[in-house]
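Checked the freezer inventory, then went back to the computational side. Two predictions to log before the end of the day. The first one is the construct we discussed on Monday; recording sequence and tokens without edits.
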Amino acid sequence: MTEFLTATHWGAFYAEVSDGRIVGVRPFEADPHPSPIGASLIGAADHRSRVSAPMVRKGWLDNGPSGKGRGQEPFVCVSWEQATQLVARELERVRQTYGNEAIYGGSYGWASAGRFHHPQSQLKRFLNLCGGFTSSLYSYSFGAGYVILPRVIGKGNDPISNFTSLDVVADHSKILLMLGGAPYKNTQVEAGGVGRHVVPELLRRCRDNGVRIVNVSPIRDDVDAEIGAEWICIRPNTDTAFLLGIAHVVLSEGLHDQAFLARYCVGFDRFESYLLGKADGVSKTPEWAASICGVGADVMRSLARALASSRSVISIAWALQRAHHGEQPYWMTITLAAMLGQIGLPGGGFAIGYGAMASVGVPGPRFNGPAVPQGRNPVETYIPVARISELLERPGETMDFDGRVIRLPDIRLVYWAGGNPFHHHQDLNRFRKAWLKPETVIAHEQVWNGLAKNADIVLPATYTFERNDLSVSSRDSHMFASRQAVAPFGEARNDFDIFAAISAELGFRERYTEGRDEMQWIRWLYEGFAQTSNWLPPFEEFWEKGHVEIPRDRVERPSSILMEDFRRDPAAHPLDTPSGRIEIFSADIAAYDYPDCPGHAAWLEPAEWLGSPKAQDYPLHLMSNQPSGKLHSQLDFGAASLDTKSGGREPIFMNPADAVSRGIRHGDIVRVFNSRGQCLATAHVTSGIGENVVRVSTGSWVDFANTAADGAMETHGNPNVLTLDIGTSRLGQGTSANTCLVEVERFAGTPPPVRAFDPPPIVRLR
């Protein structure tokens, strides 16, 4: 047996190979908290869901480009030569007939932890050389946050990269108030890979140092049980009202830091008028907030006084901005932190995204790792990433976004490499209809997931362990030489080689490859990075050893404190906001006159929530959080993912009171439904979730029992057949996935089987 070090998004592992197959997995020795997802590498290489050769949808091949029949028809196996020619000709046809703006380059970046075999970079490099494409901005994970935070605190103090590290919290804070928690399961992953998972030990250090940790969430295990956090069960989507109630106490009892507000902020007077009800006649008292968020007024009063009298951090999870008006809880968190006056002090202020990924809250250097140069996109047209259904549905129309009016182009061809929109997009029944609009969909995929089954040309791509690469994250402890462990499955090729062949057909292969093959590119990236990093050994030494640890004097630098320089001297270190200060009121946003995003933080009712009339028909609020046994939908068929399912379906977590009132018992198959769709799941009854709230994690491959019918039953437990597909606001246009009401009932009869991992029909072999 031979071992090969392989770097993944969820950590580095030694793949144990015998007779050309991965038969075991051993975690990297320096990782104190390795992810269980590593076990899913076993059996992945030759799973029945792998795409074995280039495939073309029969109707598209026989009748020409058209979305008719997409997702319903069988596929035809073709040669690589034919597939390459088909793709090149179709790209050229669309370019010549409609222009490059008619090509949408879809890729979500999580398909590979490697810095060379990074599908998003390879796709963008290829399409830029091909004349450009309509692109997307930001991410589903943090779309609204990317827009609102620069408006309030400026890009230069973006807490995604300049947050206060958790070791500082452990050593200086008395209270860590966590809106949305910081679950270990999310900290398994990082885009560029993980050498050491350390967030769990940092949170344990907070606990051991006596920090009072308070988890404000509808879900108790949003903070892991061993941390011993207090749990305040709140109604989903009401965190802004909760924070307003606390802020009212701080203001009315004179606990606010007037000197900080005057020196470091602008616009507090406008917000104060709103908070006291002078603007709308509604004073945002704890009693007012309690009627909305379901948390007692006395709890808010007690918290307000504790926060004001102790060094405290208010932490808000990324999940809270993935909801209708998701900008508001972020803005309100910063506003309350400013009122308390502790921003820029050790262990004080606010934090964004503890528990979101492996690097968030971890002390250490931040550096830009090596990356494939993508070139410049000649096409300036773009959309907010989560608005793809509108893009396909409304060609020629316009959309408000971040103070601008953008035009939606007429997309004729979608090219996707990396990511699975049939996992991460919302209202999948609506999305399926919109997906039929383009004439051609081309996808690079390892497996027959929802994207591949709903494409026209499917080009089989390699997995991480079937190729060589280098992996490093910008705030991690190691750089890895990710070694090819097994031969590619079937006729699978690296994305780079696929694009190189198509580039040859289109006449720009040399510009795309720059005369380098895989290992030459890896060496080039490494040595270019080494020129700016004197701690790296020669490439040969690195590749032979398989990893290099970033020197400890770079990792263990003084820990970071958000806005420390700004607090010390706001004139010398102004924020890059219009005022140079924290914008509690933004004149720019107010001038846009968006009814769904005023000029200061405010409580705005979501489109649907437990206090809305729609709750009469759909009385349960669905939370669709990140899964624990996989990253997004990757390796959904793997051992770690299957261990989280029950009867092959995703579990739905529900409160005992909600289960009893519906005659549902633990382990029952249930139908989860609303006006947008329906799916099957397995009931998991637990007191760890609030009443009138249910939870289904994302990532199960979508599996419709009838692919042609509107509202067809999804059998596997994919919550995105239910989630709401609207923008967070006209400002941010992020996803509103966590704004979703449903009903649940016990499923009667024999449930349809789950066939999510089965390949589609292939009717003609070459």
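The second is the one RB wanted added to the comparison set:
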Amino acid sequence: MLKPSNSGRVLVLGEDTRNFLAVIRSLGRSGLDVHVAWCPLNSPALKSKYIRRCHILPEYRSDDAGWLEAFNALLREEQFELILPCTDGTILPLQMFREQLEDGGRTCLLPADVYRICASKDETYRLASQLEIPLPAQLSASTIGEVRTAAADFGYPLVLKPRTSSSVVNPLSRQAVRKIRRPEDLESAAQAMLGQGEILVQQNFMGRGVGVEVLCKNGEILTAFQHERVHEPLLGGGSSYRKSVPLHPGMLDATHRLIRELRYTGVAMVEYKYNPATGAWVLIEINARFWGSLPLSIAAGLDFPRYLYEMLCRDRTDFPQQYRTGLYARHWSLDLQWMLDNLRADHSNPDLLTVPWLKVASEIWNIVRLRERSDTFVWDDPKPAVADLAGFCEQMTFAVAKRVSLLRKWGRRRAHRAGRGARNVLFVCHGNICRSPFAAAALARIARERLTVASAGYFPKAQRRAPDAAVTAAAKFGIDLEAHRSALVTLADTEAADVIFVFDRANIDALTARFPQARSKMHLLGALDPSGPLEISDPYGGSVGQFLNCYARILRILQDLFGKDCPAKTSGARSQLLEPSADAGEQDFVRLPRGAGY
């Protein structure tokens, strides 16, 4: 039993609006004193009235223990009764450093061996195989040749999976599962994933996603719930609309066997795929945390966050077993995006998880018959839903701005005024190893000593080298990235800058979450190009030719904005780029006219 320190005070950690917000509301409604940390400062969940206090902590960094010192200082100061990390990005750092946490027994974490099995898709697969649980065919691959062999055995579509979903270096970045539909797409996707280590090649199983959610203690399931996905991303993934269904005897038995073997304590969602036409099903993975569809289980009558608190802190083991089936829950902002994707999709493609529009339209009856709930909107706490929809509208506005010439002109004028009036320029991209260091070096040469120029990134590891392809491409412009080492953007960086140039929407979102006061200084560098794409895509993992195209566009934009007095060596390299030199292989170089983008 966890000994109460400051009874009723809990710390919730997370960045996902769905389960993070659901946990906050559940514990707040139970009368607990809810504090939050390690969440984006622009998260809609922070609008909840059930949050007593939000703590600003340094984000996890693999090369700096400052985050751990600050985290332990907070634990000493507040003496929380329980710490609940809700998402992979908040769980992984605490699992790795659990022995160094102040009074780590109050943090809801798994034993190291149990977490390792659940976090590793490969180890989960082996355990399930030993327990004779149905699984899709799978092979491990460390070379492209092994991937090709698996593809020949399994056929297409083919599923490529990382061994784990989260990276130790950057837990907030989930490593994606790729579904490959054509042999010609296999090479590039597999090579990119193999760059991160061994991957899993899995035979595709056609079916709907199903989750069996459980609360467990010492390998015993205390209560269980099941949902079925109704609206899934067209290529698969977490649902935006789902319904509660009765527990499937076979899946429940498989879940019992897994939980018993692991002697699992805590909450988990065991994910399956189910084919209603054949009745066949297979295990996909174990999510050793709260799940995205958590609002549905709470609405259906099983309040897992409150039950977990009462089990860990009050020794309760007797929980309700019944829940309402046939209840639906929708995450409106995600589902509106799904509807747009479903509208544009090819409904004749059997590999896409599309839904006929007549069936989508008929879902209105779920609302009429009061069988539908919202993940974010509830009458006693409406502000997070308003903020969530506002964020969706902003996202849609951005999508429109990329296509509407009037809005593009406004953005270009705004960025041009900011750039021409600046004396301190900061370039920020994701990792500070591809786009931003080249832009900073190029502008430093163009502007000579007229400007102070810097670059940084927000990937939580400093001192990383630029990729070989970036170094090779930059050298053709007379710019040396060989000695460059990445830097992490800081508050001081943003305050010192007159203008912050970023490269894509993800950069804006990440910086706004960390430094909301700097939002007015941020501009997309691509907005200054009247004919090219608004965003300058990250060439990381691409060929030298892709880097050449990216760098040519960045250089052209900077020359147009800050003057034509670039040194001859750089301008000569630009001319050389348009006609590839002998050492730039024709297969690597892509000829693009001005403004074509890439």
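For RB: The chain has a mean pLDDT of 86. Residues 137-203 form a domain with the Dna Ligase; domain 1 fold (CATH 3.30.1490.20). Let me know if you want it refolded.
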